[in-house]
Amino acid sequence: ESTVKMAQRVIKRFNQVINWHVERERGLKANPISNIVQKDLSEEIAKDEEFDDLPLISTTNVLLLLDYFKDNPYRFVFDFMALHGMRIAESVAIEWSDIDFEKNTIYIHQQITDTGEIDPRTKTKASTRYVPLQSATKQLLLEIPEEKRTGLVTLNSEGNYLRPNNLRQRHFYKARKHLLKQHPDFDIQIPHQFRK
């Protein structure tokens, strides 16, 4: 059962319990979650089911992908996705000030849109979070001279924000095609699989 379907089932049951209390005048005059229950979640369910059909990715294939990008200026973006579970739009929006080398954390609080603008919010409230800074990524980040550690960690070749759709189309899918030729069992189909 998908996460969205399960959440919908739980919300409906909770709605029934609250309605029971409202009908019997047990301290509630109105049901505060009735609007949530009425919301059509079919689009979210379809997206969730499509994502649920994708295979879990293997560590071997994650390492193959990271190795492909090891000398690429976009290496950190792929590290952030593969090793830290970030969405593609979050990974291109990480600033040096978001990384705490003392506490070994990365603060995720914004994203870059496909139009190349910074959105000061993440996709959901729960997506604003701290994630542990992996030692392999930390080691690579510390190789960057301290005087260059300002602004966004990764920019495009013109010094502008990286657009998630460009990164996906021009770099991820090119890498996937290359790796599939060499490794027919390469199982990373879309960047969002790193979120599984």
Give the overall average pLDDT.
Answer: 86
Rounded radius of gyration (Å): 21 Å
Poorly predicted ranges (pLDDT <50, ≥5 residues)? none
- Put simply, the count of helices is 8
β-strand percent reads 5-15%
| Structural class based on helices, strands and sheet pairing | mainly alpha
The beta-strand count equals: 5
**Sheet with most strands: strand arrangement:** 1-2-5
Give me the strand/helix succession: HHHHHHEEEEEHH
Give the end-to-end Cα distance, rounded to a whole number of Å.
15 Å
Shape: globular
**Share of residues in helices:** 40-55%
Largest sheet: 3 strands, antiparallel
What secondary-structure arrangement, pairings included, does this model have?
Layout: H1 3-23, H2 34-38, H3 42-52, H4 59-68, H5 75-84, H6 88-91, E1 99-100, E2 105-108, E3 111-112, E4 118-119, E5 129-132, H7 135-142, H8 164-182
